[in-house]
Amino acid sequence: MNRLNEDARDKYFDSIFKALKNNEKDKFLEYFLELHPTDQVDLFLALYKDKRPMFYEYLSASEFAEIFQGLDVESQKEVILELDKDYAANMFNHMQSDDIADFLGEINEPHAKDILNAMDKEEADEVMELLSYPEESAGAIMTKEFIAIKATDTASTVMNRLREEGPGAETIYYLYVVDEKDKLVGVVSLRDLIVTPLGETVERIMSTRVVSVEATTDQEEVAELIKDYDLLAAPVVTSTNELIGIVTVDDVIDVLEQEATEDFGEISAAKGATDVNITSFAAARKRSPWIILLMFFGLITAGVIGQFEETLEEIVLLAVFIPLIMDSAGNTGTQSLAVMVRSLATGSFEKKGLVNTIKREFGTGIMLGIICAVVLMVVVPFLYDSYILAFIVGISLFLTLSIATIIGAVVPVAINKLKLDPAIASGPFITTVNDILGLLIYFSIATALLQYL
Questions:
Q1: Coil, helix or strand for 297?
Q2: Torsion-angle region of residue 315: left (phi > 0), alpha (psi -120 to 50) or beta?
Q3: Residue 266 in domain
Q4: Which of 228, 250, 272 is where one domain is finished?
Q5: Of 2, 70, 68, 71, whose CA–CA distance to 35 is shortest?
Q6: What Å distances lie between residue 95 and 40, 131, 248, 351, CA to CA?
């Protein structure tokens, strides 16, 4: 099933909408079921709400399960209220267990219990197991739909099982080999299985060097492992090496997106408020603690300026360059922060080491400072006819940018050492600290050279 280009898709959608409008069920199903699952989701979202009941009537619960899995959580919460209880229960029975767990984790507990009670017991038990694991762990994001085989199975036996059980599995590209106690002992790729003589046993072709994760492993570590080893899936085991599930690459993509969103929220001091679906009140409540804290830091900045009131009274022109010093310091520090948070997240920091990383950022700050200082020493005399003023602003900016890069690099490392998320060294926080130091440097130099202005 290939995705259509935009023009072809719009025309195809029109044909489906027309069939739906004319109550042509057979034609609707023929056209709709030919679509790529992603296009099916897009078409469903494009429907008017009054047409959705007909949509549910035409599609079986198993067919709609694929669409429901592709919706975002807010859309899922809206749609579930429109579904008949029996239809919904049947739909959940045909969904992947990890997708059901993700949805139930986002709704209130009584409603989640009602859904689990309506599902088949075996399916519900699998979902409840996933919900029992710590949030953001391998166990919480794994799926139970995988195929385990025995070392004594022949290639022919395994191929027959794949024909029967493959459609219900999350992935069949890796087949995991377990012993009599369901402990993981090996892995076989689908490619190796296909090229193996049908009478050959799994033991002869399996690899015993299996990369696996425990159920309590943090989801970010799982994502990093799958990325490093170029895996399509990673087996999840208990502390005794019993195979209990797999984490697939599509789950990892969701994890990486989630972690990136969290880091963005931390760096911008808007943690928890990056979701556009939350209300203005909720967004303000989540952002306000940082804003209030930064407001008090702003009072410190104002206090620094107040300490040099006499200098400003003597040379009012110095006030013109306050925004320049503050903005440059904040921007440079935030750049170093972003670089450091990213290097910590990808593991490149461990490869380079603290000293080398800080040396690089400090060197970058010095180079930026020199470039900016030279530009100012050329421009300022032309605009304000003062070489001393140009020297003060230039040397202040040089020192400020050099120090700002070190602060932007060191603070997240220090926070990481405390076993906290380095992204909490937010951009606004780094910016404010560098503003204060930049102003101290600027006014200290200006005061020392005041007699020459």
A1: helix
A2: beta
A3: no
A4: 250
A5: 2
A6: 16, 15, 15, 41
Helix (H) or strand (E) holding 207: none
Rounded distance between C-alpha atoms, residue 287 and residue 421, angstroms: 18
Give residue for tokens 């953001």: 136
Residue 350: name the closest of 416, 304, 405 by CA: 416
Tens of pLDDT, residues 179-219: 999 999 999 999 999 999 999 999 999 999 999 999 999 99
Residue 225 Cα distances to 135, 228, 229, 234, 235, angstroms: 19, 5, 6, 8, 11
Collapsing DSSP states into helix, strand and coil, what is residue 54? helix
Q: Give the β-pairing of 233-237 and 213-214.
A: parallel
Query: For 194, phi and psi rounded to 5 degrees?
Result: -65, -40
Q: Is 270 within a domain?
A: no
pTM of the model: 0.63
In this structure, are 246 and 301 located in the same domain? Answer: no
Degrees to nearest 5, angle at CA 338 with 337 and 339: 90
